[in-house]
Fold this protein.
Amino acid sequence: MYHRPYRFAFYDTASPENYTLLHPDLVILCYDITTRTSLLNVQQVWRKDMMRNYCNQDKFIPVMLLGLKRELRVECDGVIYPQEGYRIAQEMRCEQYAECSAVTGEYVDEVMEDIARLAAQTTTEKGALSEPACSLM
């Protein structure tokens, strides 16, 4: 399964109007680890929207919860630590939890590998469920 080439298509959706145009094989729910409101929005808004628009009995769609801006983590009130993010991911029934920093590059390679592993779970012998590429939202 992992010894073959994969092609990924990433989409950043900022509004629900675009949801109906996508047919993702994997959903990545991202939040800012320095802003508790960001995590609450993922829990209360984005996860529910994703479930309503994409989850049905015919297709399994893995979900990753991804904490962003790891370089800004300092000990203060309101910051979300990995243990809490992981716990929230479990409560939301996400298949994976990770954090990274685009600014410093910390854990970016590992996150991309995790995304590839999760995406590989959605493939068949013929390829991705959404041809011609595995779509990530």
User: Anything to note?
Assistant: Residues 127-137 have pLDDT under 50 and may be disordered. The longest strand covers residues 27-32.
